[in-house]
């Protein structure tokens, strides 16, 4: 028997990349590769890249530079670049780093085995097309290994919104939704392997419009209700959404679908209508606030999370104040906030930029407000009972960690619980980033 070859995947960016990396590992599993945590003993290194941060491509080139020595020692080592930087840079990658054997865009992972075969002949393998076929259809051979209790499942990819700061429509292409039956069968498979919570993923997941079994398009709410029928699947979440795609049925599902968790990540980006317009967000601050009102009417304990970009071109102090006002009005349970940074190729990169020190100062003010809100909502959980899906042992002896329905990390100590157990927990304490409690 020949020893299995080892595959090291370094994943950058969002949960969709985490999911894609798992699927790539499975596709290459069929070629005899097993995962390793160390690039040093790998036979193949794959960087699954993300283009969302500033200088993303430069970071990938410098990471590749680190593997030069390894490649010189082991000429058979295969090095690949996948993901959004691969899509954006294409051939430029092999031009600048000739040791790279294969470059594969996010829509072509199902072609990895073929690309690898080509790379083994010494030829350079490059695929950054947007093929018509569904890559997931070709990635069905999941090995039946046991899975952690919470898993991601990509149901939609790409985006048609073209926000002025975002590269997704260019790197991931137009919106594509997976058919309902494929999503349901993958969810069933995950549940059989021990998964109890599934987070449905998509760059614009609530724009989901997959073909149902009878041939008509299904929206995300209908898909969620169908998934909720699966015995053993206890929790469903979804991310990331655009406010304009939050339709009536999806709002209602937050109130009437027990398995849909009371946590929603709904990016707004800014609170000034002028800036929202410049961002091409296609909604206003008021329409966003009205939507939150309707969601909270359907599910009063809904915890909200948001994304914010501070210092977008032409943002004045008054525009920024409008963002603070919106945050005050919503009260977020968690949030991600960043300074605007130009991303080449996006329309906003061409406009008048806010000075760096102003961006920094505004970001600090926004983050201190968001942290106060997050802390207040978390502290308000003390004394309440939450449901916790336990995921893994904690850092200290006898400690177990899980997630509440609101996505708080919850620690308990000395309880008779195992990963996958779903239990009621009384919250006793609120720490900096997590809750401590006792199993009821
Ligand atoms: S909706 Fe989201 S993914 Fe689509 S362009 Fe806007 S920020 Fe990017």
UniProtKB/TrEMBL annotation:
It catalyses: 2-thio-N(6)-dimethylallyladenosine(37) in tRNA + S-adenosyl-L-methionine = 2-methylsulfanyl-N(6)-dimethylallyladenosine(37) in tRNA + S-adenosyl-L-homocysteine + H(+); N(6)-dimethylallyladenosine(37) in tRNA + (sulfur carrier)-SH + AH2 + S-adenosyl-L-methionine = 2-thio-N(6)-dimethylallyladenosine(37) in tRNA + (sulfur carrier)-H + 5'-deoxyadenosine + L-methionine + A + H(+); N(6)-dimethylallyladenosine(37) in tRNA + (sulfur carrier)-SH + AH2 + 2 S-adenosyl-L-methionine = 2-methylsulfanyl-N(6)-dimethylallyladenosine(37) in tRNA + (sulfur carrier)-H + 5'-deoxyadenosine + L-methionine + A + S-adenosyl-L-homocysteine + 2 H(+). It comes from the Bacteria. Binds 2 [4Fe-4S] clusters. One cluster is coordinated with 3 cysteines and an exchangeable S-adenosyl-L-methionine. Pfam families: Radical_SAM, TRAM, UPF0004. Its main location: cytoplasm. [4Fe-4S] cluster 1 binds at residues 14, 50, 84. Its cofactor is [4Fe-4S] cluster. [4Fe-4S] cluster 2 binds at residues 159, 163, 166. HAMAP family: tRNA_metthiotr_MiaB. Catalyzes the methylthiolation of N6-(dimethylallyl)adenosine (i(6)A), leading to the formation of 2-methylthio-N6-(dimethylallyl)adenosine (ms(2)i(6)A) at position 37 in tRNAs that read codons beginning with uridine. This is tRNA-2-methylthio-N(6)-dimethylallyladenosine synthase. It comes from Roseivivax halotolerans.
